[in-house]
Amino acid sequence: MTDEDSDESSIYDEDGREEMVDDDEMSSGEEGFMRGYDEAEEHEKHKEKKEEEDEEEKED
For 13, how many CA atoms within 13 A lie in the half-sphere containing its CB? Predict the structure, then answer.
């Protein structure tokens, strides 16, 4: 993995994004967009898990 790869992956975690905003490598708007993306992804995971649990309950 190159340094560039690790820099790219850091935008996907909150600490990495905050550091990039502090270093003027990312705007606060871009950071907000990525935060919204993360929240939507978490919401989708919870939704899928709930649907799986609902299906299991129907089978019982």
Answer: 6
Handedness of CA 7, 25, 23, 29 (dihedral sign): negative
Q: How many CB atoms lie within 10 A of CB 51?
A: 10
pLDDT of residue 2: 44
Q: How confident is the model at residue 9 (pLDDT cuts 50, 70, 90)?
A: low
In a domain, 13, yes or no: yes
Cβ-based neighbour number of residue 17 at 10 Å: 22
Number of structural domains (the chain) is: 1
Predicted confidence at residue 29, as pLDDT, reads 92
In a domain, 2, yes or no: no
